[in-house]
Design brief:
The protein is an alpha+beta fold. It is built from 4 helices and 14 strands. It has 3 domains: 101 residues, Efflux pump adaptor protein, beta barrel domain (Elongation Factor Tu (Ef-tu), domain 3), CATH 2.40.30; 67 residues, RNA polymerase II/Efflux pump adaptor protein, barrel-sandwich hybrid domain (OB fold (Dihydrolipoamide Acetyltransferase, E2P), Beta Barrel); 105 residues. The protein has a 6-stranded antiparallel β-barrel. β11 and β12 form a beta hairpin. The chain is elongated, with a radius of gyration of 44 Å.
Length: 317
């Protein structure tokens, strides 16, 4: 009888333990579901990423960056060998100077003819005076006038020739000047600059390697301004408009979150299938719309980190 009583008590205690475990599991499941539905949408943080490529050919002489380094826009971070471009520029400058030295001085070139014309005009006046005094004849006056006309035509022809020559030299000099500017532009492209304010994510090249136009040197991202890309169902979009303020909750672990103030910057005009890694309040939704929320980074947000939003936290612009 004692053995039978012990068996009944063991079965009773086992049933009690199973009941307690069932209650605990149900509570945990309910808590998880509650946590899961606490937010209206989830997404990941991204930002503007730029791959900086070489714009000139040559050996990389310096590249003073490290992954994680913060750079300012237009900050010089490296150089590419530019000696050949520099020598080409100096050659063009010398050619330009040589062209200018060939430029004739128009006034000096025509000074002799102008002096002859001046002398002929004086002679014409003298002959005219003599003719009035009957000391000269008409033929002498006509000869002087003819000489003046010939000299004036010679002067015009020489001026035209000299000006044409000068214009040709000017045009050639302009072409050389443009080539010098091209060399200047190529020399400037030998200096590697940061295109934006941001953090270096990946370094692709090292000093001593040969760069060619288009060769990736490093990747930089603007980590000060993050973008949360999330997805909402069509009925949730009725609560949204571009420019609204939205509270964003960044996920830092199992139970650690940070709250940020974000601004809705973009709503997709086309629907798409729900990404497998994204959760929405209605898990049965097949089609969702992507949105982008701008969030100011306090230094803790990382690219690829998960974030959540609550539509109840919407405020007007």
């Amino acid at each position: 009888m004692k053995t039978e009583s012990n068996s009944i008590q063991f079965i009773s205690n086992r049933g009690l333990r199973l009941s307690i475990l069932t209650l605990l599991f149900s509570s945990l499941l309910l808590s998880c579901n509650k946590s899961k539905n606490e937010y209206d949408a989830a997404g990941t943080f991204e930002t503007t990423e730029v791959i900086v490529s070489a714009e000139s050919s040559g050996k990389i002489l310096s590249l003073n960056i490290e992954e994680g380094q913060i750079l300012k826009r237009n900050e010089a971070v490296g150089t590419i060998d530019s000696i050949q471009l520099y020598l080409k520029k100096q050659q063009l400058l010398s050619s330009g100077k040589a062209m200018q030295s060939r430029r004739p001085n128009v006034e000096k070139q025509i000074a002799a003819i102008k002096e002859q014309i001046s002398t002929a005009i004086k002679e014409r006046k003298r002959v005219e005076n003599l003719l009035r005094a009957n000391a000269a004849n008409q033929k002498q006056l006509d000869d002087v006038k003819s000489q003046i006309s010939i000299l004036e035509r010679q002067l015009d022809a020489q001026k035209t020739s000299l000006e044409t020559n000068n214009q040709g030299i000017t045009d050639e000099s302009t072409g050389v000047s443009l080539q010098v500017e091209q060399m200047e532009d190529q020399l400037n492209k030998c200096i590697i600059l940061s295109p934006i304010d941001g953090t270096v994510l990946v370094k692709y090249a090292e000093v001593g390697e040969v760069a060619i136009p288009g060769k990736a040197l490093f990747k930089i991202a603007n980590t000060e301004n993050m973008i949360l890309r999330a997805y909402l169902t069509g009925d949730q979009l009725t609560k949204l408009k571009v420019g609204q303020k939205i509270k964003v909750y960044a996920d830092f672990g199992a139970s650690s979150t940070r709250e940020y103030s974000g601004q809705l910057a973009w709503i997709s005009s086309k629907s798409e299938f729900t990404p497998k890694t994204i959760q929405t309040r209605d898990e049965r939704a097949n089609l969702v719309y992507a949105i982008k929320i701008n969030v100011k980074n306090d230094g803790f947000l990382k690219i690829g980190q998960y974030g959540n939003i609550k539509l109840e936290s919407l405020t007007n612009k």
